[in-house]
Amino acid sequence: MEIQEIGDVIKGAEEEMKKTINSYKRYLTTVKTGRAHTSIFENLKVESYGQVMQLKQLASITTPDATTIIIQPWDTSIIKDIEKAILKENMGFTPQNDGKVIKIIIPPMTEEDRKKVVKVMKQETESYRVAVRNARKKALKLVKEMEKEKLISEDQSKKAEKDIQKLVDRYSKKIDEMFSSKEKEILNI
Questions:
Q1: Within 10 Å of residue 137's Cβ, how many Cβ atoms?
Q2: How far apart are the first and last CA of the chain?
Q3: H helices of the chain, where?
Q4: Measured between alpha carbons, how far is residue 44 from residues 61, 85, 117, 137, 158 in Å?
């Protein structure tokens, strides 16, 4: 019974850390790299048909080459709505609308731009590291409460602390590896 409760605390901490990693992966797909990625636009909110929808629900988004994105709405009558949403988002792109598709040329990033993107990404990455550490803090608090209430022994508490720290180390390392990979992608022209 007691071991199961410690296991639940550790599993809960790991679940939180997994959610953080998944959230970080999603964040990294939105980081500008100077290359065309459909993920830049997939979740763009477009107001059409009297409601707000994600662009991926309204159009196909393709990348015919490394610097071009083509957005082809399934209904060409909403092409102006899509164009308006892109401009409203102020992403630094100028959509070219020919009435059937929207073509977006991704401008090459200067070295200064790349360094700025990496700097912002570093700051954002730290918030994900903090989220992992917060999961540890929450789990350790629960373990200490269990020990204080004599639900577990001091030895069990120490072992749980070590197990939780191993999780923190593992998930922090994943974040660092993902950051390094994305940083290389951005800085390599």
A1: 14
A2: 56
A3: 2-30, 39-42, 79-89, 111-148, 154-187
A4: 11, 7, 20, 35, 47
Domain 2-30+110-187 belongs to what topology?
Topoisomerase I; Chain A, domain 4 (1.10.132)
**Which residue type occupies 19?**
K
Q: Which amino acid is at 56?
A: K
Task: Indicate the CATH number for domain 39-105.
Answer: 3.30.1360.40
Whole-model pTM above 0.85?
no
CA distances from 27 to 23, 31, 44, 114, 182 (A): 6, 7, 14, 17, 11
Q: What pLDDT, in 10s, does the model give residues 111-166?
A: 888 888 899 999 999 999 999 999 999 999 999 999 998 888 999 999 999 999 99
27-46 per-position pLDDT tens digit: 888 787 777 777 778 778 88
